[in-house]
Design a protein that fits this description.
Radius of gyration: 24 Å
Low-confidence stretches: none
Largest sheet: 4 strands, antiparallel
Order of helices and strands: EEEEEHEEE
Structural class: mainly beta
Number of helices: 1
Mean pLDDT: 79
Shape: globular
Strand order of the largest sheet: 4-5-1-6
Strand content: 25-35%
Distance between the termini: 52 Å
Length: 97
């Protein structure tokens, strides 16, 4: 079964007559194994517990092409200024008040 992670950190919690200790794993998560299906259900019904993979997914590189990335996010060259340098466009424009 997949481990359960506690988002609150290193804690010990008793469910029924069993005490579970959430300890840091090699990925920095606070996890424990819970074999009892009723206990798993109880823990996973609380917002700060979640089921996780044994090995966390590898984050994709930000340099890869991404269709959801807008080329106008952040600082982008906009136009030449009178002194010959490039102006920077910040964000998407002014906020309406």
């Amino acid at each position: 079964m997949k481990p359960i992670e506690c988002l609150l950190g290193a804690v010990a919690i008793t469910v029924g007559s069993e005490t579970y200790h959430f300890e840091r794993d090699e990925h920095g998560r606070f996890v424990t194994e819970v074999e009892n299906l009723v206990h798993r259900s109880c823990l996973l019904s609380v917002a700060h517990y979640r089921e996780v993979e044994e090995e966390p997914p590898v984050p994709s590189s930000e340099t890869e092409d991404d269709d959801t990335h807008d080329e106008h996010d952040g600082d982008t060259p906009d136009a030449d200024t009178p002194d010959g340098t490039r102006a920077q466009q910040r964000g998407r424009g002014r906020r309406k008040r």
